[in-house]
Amino acid sequence: MRLRNASEVPGDPAVVLAGVSYPMLAEAGVWYAYIGLPTWYTIGGYPLDVYAGGLVLVSGWLEVSDGGFAFESITLPPDSSDLLLDQARIDEERQRVNGIIAGFTPERYWSGAWITPTAGVVSDQFGTQRSINGGAYYPHTGLDIANDEGTPIYAAASGVVALAEELFLYGNAVILDHGAGVFSGYNHMTSLVVSAGSFAAQGDLIGYMGATGLVTGPHVHWEAVVQGVRVDPSLWTQGGVEP
Ligand SMILES: [Zn+2]
Q: Are residues 59 and 84 in the same domain?
């Protein structure tokens, strides 16, 4: 969401979509906000209102169309799928990750198009509706790239390392905070080479591909997150998503 020629807007501007308010940032006379919509968002039209100083400054309209996500069934061996039985540890991990990706750093650290973080083949697309071992369907929250264990993994874009630790289902994981409510995540690594609080420039080595956590084999599960909502990371490599 971008509002041009708005340098003289009074008050703290925010854009409201379907009752949810997103703070807007400013760069060179452009007010902007990144809004992520989940894969299960209802198809249809939605009003967008920009508020500043408590008043509606401008209104727009957003059409949400079918993402065309495919359905698939996957089979995990018992030593991996058994992880899904430990609801307490799953909840603990979700709380830890959600706490980080709910953050909002007003400074934007990335510029230009993101890079694909590693070499390999795309083994599963973002948004695929997946059933594990015959269970219910849930959307795949990232993009999977598979290669040999030990393949280097690089920061897709510049950001602060918000998390670098072993998680339960995600395995050895790194989350980068790119600012403006945008994060990226790199999971299932065999080892990490960055620590929380450090800065990773685009292309910096952050770890090595592995098969830790809930996996069928070595790959990186790469996520992009916008204001707490997982979106397709490949979109960010197709051009600079910038104000
Ligand atoms: Zn994945």
A: no
**DSSP element (H, E) containing 89:** helix 87-101
pLDDT in tens, 48-105: 999 988 889 899 999 999 989 999 998 888 877 888 889 999 999 999 999 999 999 9
Residues 147, 86 share a domain: yes
What's the 226 CA to ligand 1 centre distance in angstroms? 17
Tally of domains in the chain: 2
59 in any annotated domain: yes
Strand-pair category, 205-208 with 152-154: antiparallel
Ligand 1 centroid to Cα of residue 118, in Å, is 14
Note whether 102 and 221 are same-domain residues.
yes
Domain hosting residue 126, numbered range = 71-237
End-to-end CA distance of the chain: 9
Entry pTM: 0.93
Does the residue 243 lie in any domain? no
* Same structural domain, 76 and 52: no
How much distance in Å is there from the Cα of 144 to the middle of ligand 1? 5
Which residues keep their CB under 5 angstroms from ion ligand 1? Answer: 142, 144, 221
The total of other beta-carbon atoms located within 10 Å of residue 170's CB is 26
Q: What is the CA(65)–ligand 1 centre distance, in A?
A: 24
d(CA 12, CA 54) in angstroms, rounded, equals: 9
- Distance from Cα 113 to the centre of ligand 1, integer Å: 22
> How close is the Cα of 197 to the center of ligand 1, in Å?
25
User: Is 124 found in the same domain as 11?
Assistant: no
